[in-house]
Amino acid sequence: MSSxxxxxxxxxxxxxxxxxxxxxPATEKVTSPEAAPKEGVERGDARASDTTHTDNLPQRGLxxxxxxxxxxxxxxxxxxxxxxWGTGSGDTSGYGGMVRHxxxxxxxxxxxxxxxxxxxxxxxxxxxxxxxxxxxxxxDEITFFVRPEKIIELARALRDDAELRFEMCPSVSGVHYPxxxxxELHVVYxxxxxxxxxxxxxxxxxxxxxxxxxxxxxxxxVYPHVDWHERETWDMFGVIFDGHPALTRxxxxxxxxGHPQRKDYPLGGVDVEYKGAVVPPPSExxxxx
Length: 289
Hints:
Elements: E1 75-82, E2 99-105, H1 116-126, E3 131-138, E4 141-146, H2 151-160, E5 168-176, E6 185-193, E7 198-206, E8 215-217, H3 227-237, E9 240-242, E10 271-272, E11 277-278
Parallel strand pairs: 4-7, 8-9
Antiparallel strand pairs: 1-2, 3-4, 5-6, 6-7, 10-11
């Protein structure tokens, strides 16, 4: 007896419940290299609803408006590192053959893209001459390099102006670039605008100084909550924040010598207090036959 004709719009009755319907989007992973679409090429059977577009989605730290093709900073080579721990470390893990170029992004050109230009224009209008001559847009983030003598005036404008309104400074960090002559120590203030849902970085490039302790003005008078952050930056990097109410160590003992996160700080041979033990230098920690 012949069966009734199958309705083309209705799936067959003998289709397994685990078999997707003809119009269901594919969910299995592509494991064969030949089956995977090439980069930049869409599958021939892909529908418009299958493709996820994230152009209009808000990104972390950015407002809901899209940053339109911001300029990507070029890089400036500082030096070349060889091996995981430098040359002559006695490493036998295979990482000794690594070659890594240490690069610093250079100045980005206008337009920066999105709201970056509006913020930069407003900062220049409120505090003329604040810039140290470098603004970097990289990975959809913007960093303004600021002259140290302008940092307090600029911070007040960033906090109080209605068009800027960067009310918070969640973090202060230090960076040591020993091969960047004349600006070896950097202080980075991370600013957040809750009003406008925006984040920027304000960075100061400081010379190491004759005594190895660069100076910059403290922002405690503008953002009181950076008190401990600046103390930690002093403790770890040796940056002196002029005007800080109590610039003392916060992690290391008060009588500790040196600043552990600087790249010229010795990795071993430091007495471990509280236990009386000694951490040997890296070259003496392991022996190879």
